[in-house]
Amino acid sequence: MSAESDLAARIRYVLVRTSHPGNIGSAARAIRTMGFDRMALVAPHRFPDKEASALAAGADDVLENASVSDGLVDALAGTSLALGLSARRRGVDLEEISPREAATRALAAAARGEQVALVFGNERTGLENEELARCHAMVRIPSVDDFSSLNLSQAVQVMAYELRVASLGEVSVPVRADAEPPADAARMERFFEHLSQMLDDIDFHKGRAPTTIMLRLRKLFQRAQPDERELRVMHGIFADAQRMAQIANDKLKAPKGD
């Protein structure tokens, strides 16, 4: 396998809740023309479908090898960098980058041996806030304000082109000081679940809705990109906090002596 194809194999295009099978086929054609072949589908409305095959225009291998999952977390399994495409700013406070910057980051991560996902939402509604919150940054294609919405396969083509152009040049590859790769998406999700449970156990929210603070903490840790050893330390801290909270609760509930 050449270095170029090796990098391409670490980049997957994730299409979330795609309504029209033709767009799946057109997206398959778009990435195949730029040297990519990894596609992941999340809860597609119809797939496989003859319209997808027709509009793939020969990119049948992309469709045949596409993974299909019910949720985004499964589609991101193994990835340590996820970049979400959005046509408009959302309520999620994420770093916003251009397609060119996204391509540079994606290739740099792939060159370090990491798995990368480019995430595209439903044709009509785009990515939901909860889906964008699972990404490390939001990518906006700089279309005109009064007609900003691109067809799904067009957006895929823009990103595939930028990645192709970047791969033909020299890509700067930042090196982490500890040389440990970031934890993948599945481990990060388990970490966030433990974090959420720990905050509940120590009554951190005190009756307030936890949504906002969890989104902020998710952004913080996604930006930090901790590795597995760092996550183990954090899990240990959470477990100790939970243990101490349980001891305190038990003391409160214990019957008092005369």
Overview of the structural elements:
With 258 residues, the chain is α/β, with parallel strands linked by helices. Helix content is 49%, strand content 12%. Strands 3-2-1-6-4-7-5 form a 7-stranded parallel beta sheet. The chain is elongated, with a radius of gyration of 21 Å. The model has no long low-confidence stretch (mean pLDDT 91).
Keywords:
seven-stranded parallel β-sheet; single chain; 11 helices; elongated; 258 residues; 7 strands; alpha/beta
Largest sheet: 7 strands, parallel
Spatial arrangement of strands, main beta sheet: 3-2-1-6-4-7-5
Order of helices and strands: HEHEHHEHEEHEHEHHHH
Number of strands: 7
Q: How many H/I helices? A: 11
Protein name: tRNA (cytidine/uridine-2'-O-)-methyltransferase TrmJ
GO biological process, one term: methylation
Subcellular location: Cytoplasm
Organism: Dyella kyungheensis
SSE topology sketch:
Blueprint (H helix, E strand, L loop, with lengths): L2 H6 L2 E6 L4 H13 L5 E4 L7 H7 L3 H5 L2 E3 L2 H4 L3 E7 L10 E2 L1 H13 L3 E6 L8 H4 L4 E3 L12 H17 L16 H17 L9 H14 L3 H26 L5
Parallel strand pairs: 1-2, 1-6, 2-3, 4-6, 4-7, 5-7
Helix pairs in contact: 2-3, 2-8, 6-8, 9-11
Protein name: tRNA (cytidine/uridine-2'-O-)-methyltransferase TrmJ
EC number: 2.1.1.200
GO molecular function: methyltransferase activity
